[in-house]
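Class prep. Sample record?

___
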Amino acid sequence: MALITNSTSNLGGDQSWLASAHAIWNGRSVTVDLSKFTKETHYPQGFIPQGFPVTIGEDGLAVPYDGTNLAGHLLNDYPVDAVNATGKIEAAALLDHGRVVASKVPFQGFKAPATQANTTINYL
């Protein structure tokens, strides 16, 4: 799956993926493993966009969603450059409950999961 590039998106953030404000103040903290993301696929504009779906890997770190075990969606844009591309983002905010517009999630081919063992997100 590839990122849907949005030429109007910037570090101010494109919140069109959110279907309501519910839960945005209650995001849980996760550590994002940037070594699992690739520039061409996940952050061609220099940042991982808010709304990006992630999974929690066996090591407890957030990695790109692979179609199984959705953990939620990142609540902020996270800049990535050559310096930190193989590091980690500590205390990234994750939406794991609330309402999301599936067609606006910034990940090409994203479909609302049929089952969600780790979230209580309602997809519209």
Summary: The chain has one domain: 24-123. Confidence is low (pLDDT under 50) at residues 1-11. The longest strand covers residues 88-95. Residues 39-42 form the longest helix (4 residues).
